[in-house]
């Protein structure tokens, strides 16, 4: 049975006063990555991009998804965010509305499994398409019987997702409490998102080179494994000024990658 999933990408560029240039690079990079077989084989029908949504639109979408029984969410936010003095996290949806991450936990419902990645600042504020083409080539190279490589990756990815306790909500932030999330103005991408996906793609290449000859080969790579690589890179580049955070709930290890040892028929 195919799991009901949603990859939800939220963004807000800050408007004229606090413009974050070319967020589209990061958005396209995420969509390209999650479209890869090894990243879960997310179909176009499962991906939703909401640019500067209102609170009512956001809550209406999630209400609909709860009704149809979405079991797993990967929610990505890229834009402006902040913390209050009690360390509560907020994301800026549009010019006039902010949203607390705690409210997102309510939106997804009690039984879903959710990974939330926020590439935004954590500063305290007090109110006064190449990868997709590669994946198509993989499908041609690794097809077996009437089940192709993409299907195998998806099956294994969802099998691991199904083992995560219901109600899990893993929180990931590009920066720690009272820190900014830096942006590379020359290359037009945010530091954390870029190195997170770079580490993931490099891991896929590494696993492919290992899978044929490595005893006790492990097909899965968890999100926390890739996050730790990106975290160390970001800390090195920023000289400790930006420290990404991953808050694990219920000991959940969200799968981020699956590279099957061999292509075989799903029984």
Give structural notes.
- The chain has 267 residues and is of the alpha/beta class.
- The protein has helices at 24-34, 55-67, 101-108, 130-142, 149-161, 191-210, 223-237, and strands at 5-12, 47-51, 72-79, 81-83, 89-92, 98-100, 113-119, 169-173, 183-184, 189-190, 220-222, 245-247, 255-258.
- A six-stranded mixed beta sheet has the order 2-1-3-7-8-12, covered by helices on one side.
- The two termini are 12 Å apart.
In short:
This protein has 267 residues and is of the alpha/beta class. It has helices at residues 24-34, 55-67, 101-108, 130-142, 149-161, 191-210, 223-237; strands at 5-12, 47-51, 72-79, 81-83, 89-92, 98-100, 113-119, 169-173, 183-184, 189-190, 220-222, 245-247, 255-258.
Shape: globular
| Main sheet makeup | 6 strands, mixed
**Tally of DSSP β-strands:** 13
Write down the secondary-structure element order.
EHEHEEEEHEHHEEEHEHEE
Strand content: 15-25%
């Amino acid at each position: 049975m195919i799991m009901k999933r949603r990859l939800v990408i939220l963004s807000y560029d800050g408007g004229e006063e606090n413009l974050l240039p070319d967020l589209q690079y990061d958005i396209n990079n995420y969509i390209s990555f999650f479209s890869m077989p090894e990243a879960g084989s997310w179909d176009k029908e499962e991906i939703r991009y909401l640019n500067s949504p209102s609170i009512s639109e956001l809550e209406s979408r999630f209400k609909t998804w709860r009704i149809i029984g979405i079991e797993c969410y990967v929610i990505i936010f890229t834009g402006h965010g902040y913390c209050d003095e009690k360390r509560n996290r907020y994301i800026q949806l549009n010019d006039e509305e902010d949203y607390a991450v705690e409210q997102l936990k309510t939106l997804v419902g009690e039984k879903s499994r959710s990974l939330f990645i926020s590439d935004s600042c954590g500063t305290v504020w007090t109110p006064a398409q190449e990868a997709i083409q590669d994946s198509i080539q993989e499908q041609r190279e690794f097809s077996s019987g009437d089940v192709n490589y993409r299907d195998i990756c998806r099956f294994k990815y969802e099998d691991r997702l199904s083992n995560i306790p219901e109600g899990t909500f893993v929180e990931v932030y590009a920066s720690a409490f009272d820190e900014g999330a830096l942006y590379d103005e020359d290359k037009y991408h945010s530091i954390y998102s870029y190195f997170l996906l770079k580490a993931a793609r490099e891991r896929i290449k590494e696993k492919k080179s290992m899978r044929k000859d490595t005893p006790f080969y492990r097909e899965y790579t968890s999100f926390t494994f890739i996050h730790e690589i990106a975290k160390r890179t970001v800390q090195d580049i920023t000289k400790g000024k930006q420290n990404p955070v991953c808050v694990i709930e219920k000991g959940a290890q969200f799968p981020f990658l699956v590279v099957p040892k061999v292509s075989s028929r799903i029984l």
